[in-house]
Amino acid sequence: MPTRKRQLPEIPPELVGTVHVTPLDRIYNWARKRSLWPMFFGLACCAFEMVGTFAARFDPSRFGMEIMRASPRQADLLIVNGTVTKKMAPQVIRLYNQLPEPKYVLAMGACAISGGPFKEGYNVVSGIDKFIPVDVYIPGCPPRPEALMHGFLTIHARMERESVRDLRWYRKGEEVDTSVPVPELGPDLVDWRLAEQIEALQQPATDNQQPAE
Amino acid sequence: MYASLHLVKSLGITFRRFVETYVDDLRWFFKGGFGARYRPDTLPIRQSPTKSRGIFTVQYPAERLPLPERFRGFPFLIEEEGKLRCTACGTCARVCPPQCIWIVRASDPETGKPLREPAEFYIDISICMQCGFCAEFCPFDAIKMGHEIEIAAFDREKDLLLDLERLRKPLSYHAQIHPTEYAAEQEKKQARAAARARK
Amino acid sequence: MATEVTPEPTDEVLTRLQERFPGAVEAAPEPYEGLIVARDHLVDVATFLRDEMGYAYLSDVVGVDYPEEVNGLPPRFEVVYHLFRPVGGPLTLHVHADRENPVVPSLVPVFPSANFQEREAWDLVGIRFEGHPDLRRILLWDGFDGHPLRKDWHEVYYEEEKKPFGSRWPEGHPVMAESRTPLGRNLRYPPGWSPEDWRPTTDPWGYRPHDEVAEQKNPAMPVDRVVLNMGPHHPSTHGVLRLLATLEGERIQKLEPMLGFLHRCHEKIGERNTWLGNIPYTDRLDYVCSMTNNWPYVLAVEKLMGVEVPERAEYIRVIMGEFTRFLNHAVSVGFMCNDLGIYFTVMLYALEEREFILDLFEMTAGSRMMCNYMRFGGVAHDMTEEAVALARELAFERLPRFIDKVDAYLTENEIFRARTVGVGVLPPEQAVAYGCTGPLLRGSGVPYDIRRADPYSIYDEFDFEIITAPDGDVYSRYLVRLGEMRESLRILQQALNRLPDGPVMAGKKKATVKVPPGESYGRIEAPKGELGFYIVSDGSPNPYRYHIRAPSFVNLGVMGELCRGHLIADVVIILASIDITLGEVDR
């Protein structure tokens, strides 16, 4: 009986030495890939295109992701689809914090990536990646359904690179807290991680005058 | 009281939808054998508004919907005979509603005079709203909306800021995705050449 | 067929008003339209217009900032009202307010539809409305620093007053635009403000009014008072709407929609953009039907420019507009069933039809959702023969079958009727007072449709009915939508049969258009109701003021009234029957 050589996925050159590919990983990643549950979460225009993607013509249930869960506790993929406004940002971040590990974030459309065409608006966050780590960006305004599904496939590709050994949610001993402090609405959006910088920025402003209004 | 005739009728409609696919499968089976319905050449029939029966899912990524010629993807610059058509006039950067185009005009290294070509050309597709104004108002037909949609990326600053190298596409790509437009362009060009020859 | 439309008799109104209120009303000087009303007489004039002159319908309230003297009028804040009669064009009222202390009497006691719009004018322009029952910020949050639509208020990104900007990246190498703002985050705080000593004293989430709702005592069945948040992340709020409800048991005692979670600063950005550059932005207002968003904007600008649109372009606009109406109503009925718990069945059927209509849009305009199709004086591209063939297939064969299917599926369905008949009843008088338009108004039996009342484009050439239903409940609104889909197909069939040849653009497409100074209000019967654009031009390449009267926003004003006394489970279905898109509500 000829022994079949195990075909292991190729390791990208930048990850050689950090990633170990084992058959266990392959099974594990295959299972995770085929059961990625997105959260039913809509922000703006892209949300409607996402609804269109999840309908009959494109049907992502072929990838095992037909169930869109309205509760973040039951989902593992957050599709940020649309403009994140400053008023909405605390909610988006709260939802991200509530997602159980392993969690993936997909920024769909120009607005979620960088604020897009509304970037200069006073109530618009310049990209959700300022607050939460984004795994895959899908440019487009809005991206076609195929582009969104290509984004899903890209997430699958990212999953394939992961290994059971070094995933953060399996690490013993050290608790990794991935939650992000929820910003508050003050005179503008207050991101508590920036408190010191804001303080530093405000100090000279009181001595001199306000930077150009 | 609630379980009565119309409810059954409604359920009948959903049930009909449910069996339609199987009936259609059988119809195709008699016509073309096993799995005939899902062959790539039947895609136009499955996707037609009048002829489609049952499920009409596009089996992406195995098969793709054809993009219409006018589809607006992200802009690209046409390279004709090794040279860009772009003259760095800046019309596209001016009409761009979200202002995501940035051009630096090239200058002659010896005399320092500005040349009619771009030295740098950036389009930030993390801002681009795909409105197509740059292509619509370009006086030289140098910038067009491409048909690439599968460009999901891992890194925003590296992958989504297109520079001259990534924007440059050969004329054949333009001819392939915009056949009608390309034909009209060629016709105009020939007419102009003929008029010049006559003079 | 088309009803006779009487021309707008602003002069007649002016004489009547001057007789009644001497010295309080004058004609607005060129290039403005309509009348200037003295502040102190505004409420009386409005009451008179409503009761004696038939202007029962306040459609639009806009705040405008004029920091400098212009056209012979002093520096001022201005509030512009657009009033309508059942037939005919607008009556424009201007009210001036001080630059230092802008106060204008509130019109809420006369026209309840002013409620949300005055709150918006307070929020964005900072005009206070005296006598308003609940003058709080509506799109931004309580505690926000400044009133953004004032001309001297600049956002953090501020580069120049007008687009095109000198350069997006003047450093000579590409820099992400936000990294040039002080924190790299599009954030700014008032001078001297420090996060350390900041103690929130404001009420950004708007709970305070609900704390004051009196507890109702029902001796038969004592229940607790609960303040409940629905949204902004909720599967049946159609986006990021937040409903804040005070409940007694399961009954709604007070409910208010909290807006602004998708406030994308559309109007501020619109005032920076070039005239042309605003067209793709309008697509993103009501993202379900982008074609009908382009339309009123180009209509308003064409009115100022005085451009004639070629006939074929008008036909194409009507075709696209009616397909959009069909699309919107189909999806809206689908969403309604989705919210009822008919999980996705009707929705999937509707989305299937949507795909075909989007194919048509993509073939013609180049994009599925953000069509960016209309231009000043026509449309961007001609419809190809292939597209006309697809449109014919859809309008004559495919879509009628869909309506019949939905009709057979839902109209007599006992469960559907049990959930919708008698729920969320809106009496006609209330509908008019609250400025409701579209299927919401016609579902209350008021036959008001702008395509007939104030015909634009070529709608007077088509034969179609205005669908109404008398009961004013959720079921009536469903019936109206179903009927309107049929009427849309009738219009489409006529238009496709008569589609003439010819150019689709008046003159050449130009990147910079010259718009003469003046103001104009363009409105159409969008699928959701009256979509109006109020624009002011000062002759420059950018609009001076650009305001959107969004049907979803105004219709949402009646939501609280509709829900009072209903069960919490009915709230979602009432909301679905109003049919909102958040992009348009919050702009």
Structural write-up:
The complex is a heterotrimer of chains A (213), B (199) and C (587). Chain A is of the alpha/beta class and 213 residues long. Helix content of chain A is 31%, strand content 8%. Chain A has one domain (16-182): Rossmann fold, CATH 3.40.50. In chain A, strands 1-2-3 form a three-stranded parallel beta sheet. A two-stranded antiparallel sheet of chain A has the order 4-5. In chain A, strand 4 (184-185) and strand 5 form a beta hairpin. Chain A is globular and about 55 Å long. The termini of chain A are far apart. In chain B, 32% of the residues are buried. Chain B contains eight helices and seven strands. Chain B folds into two domains: 1-65, no CATH class; 75-198, 2-Layer Sandwich (Alpha-Beta Plaits). Chain C folds into two domains: 10-130, Beta Polymerase, domain 2 (2-Layer Sandwich); 266-586, Cytochrome-c3 Hydrogenase, chain B (Orthogonal Bundle). The two termini of chain C are 36 Å apart. Residues 1-7 of chain C have low confidence and may be disordered. Chains in contact: A-B, A-C, B-C. At the A-C interface, helix 2, strand 4, strand 5 and helix 6 of A face helix 5, helix 9 and helix 19 of C.
Proportion in helices of chain A: 25-40%
Which shape of chain B, going by the Cα principal axes?
elongated
CATH class categorisation of chain A: Alpha Beta
Strand content of chain B: 15-25%
Rounded to the nearest angstrom, the radius of gyration of chain A is: 20 Å
CA-to-CA gap between the ends of chain A?
79 Å
Q: The CATH topology of chain A is what?
A: Rossmann fold
Return the string of H and E elements of chain A: HHEHEHEHEEH
State Rg of chain B.
25 Å
Strand order of the largest sheet of chain A: 1-2-3
Mean pLDDT metric of chain B: 85
Report strand % of chain A. 5-15%
Q: Ranges of chain B with pLDDT <50 over ≥5 residues?
A: none
CATH architecture of the largest domain in chain B: 2-Layer Sandwich
The CATH class designation of the largest domain in chain B is: Alpha Beta
